[in-house]
Amino acid sequence: MAKFAPTPITSQRLKLRLIEESDLAMTRQWRNKDRVRHRFVFTDKLEPDAHQQWFVEYRKRSNDYLYVIEELQTLKKPVGQISIYNIDAANKSAEYGRVMIGEDDALGLGIAAEASRMLIEHFKKNFQIETFHLEVKADNDNAYKLYESLGFERVEQSGNMVSMVLDVRSAAVRR
Asked: By CB atoms within 10 Å of each CB, which of 7, 105, 112, 132 scores lowest?
């Protein structure tokens, strides 16, 4: 089944648009930065052929949306990525993640938090997603703080991985 191609999600400062093949070199460069890749479960450097093959498979999945985050006001360029995937329409749930700010000059500007709120609200409103899940490494303090600030609650920990959930039926995404 083909992926539904929604219009970009925008605010005054950010635009979230679906990843395109022309973004692969940029996103691979971001993902291969030491400060980024050691925060993911798969910590090896991504090779071009493997990243291309991932993209081919990604495009086939109708329940997986990876967005490039573009900063529109100051930096005026793509700065990171964010995703909603494993969408289960029947259970109104999805996984949130693959968040990374790849550009060093975009760190500490609140971009990940704003993009997260935009994406979660979009999928709540337009896809009727009520529950968002994620897994984060227990030692990834910055990500863990971000997720808590959005309203995600810790469900369990298994080894170095923490599972968290956000139920948007009971509360709005925190600002």
From this structure: 7
- Range 114-141 average pLDDT: 94
In the chain, where does DSSP find H-type helix? 24-31, 34-37, 48-60, 111-127, 141-150
Q: Which of 165, 157, 173, 160 is nearest to 95 (CA)?
A: 165
Nearest Cα to Cα of residue 82 among 166, 34, 3, 18: 18
What is the rounded distance in angstroms from the CA atom of residue 101 to the CA atom of residue 81?
Answer: 7
Domain count along the chain = 1
pTM of the model: 0.92
Task: Read off the CATH number of the domain in which 113 is found.
Answer: 3.40.630.30
Query: Which domain covers residue 37, as residue numbers?
Result: 9-123
- Tens of pLDDT, residue by residue over 145-172, are 999 999 999 999 999 999 999 999 865 5
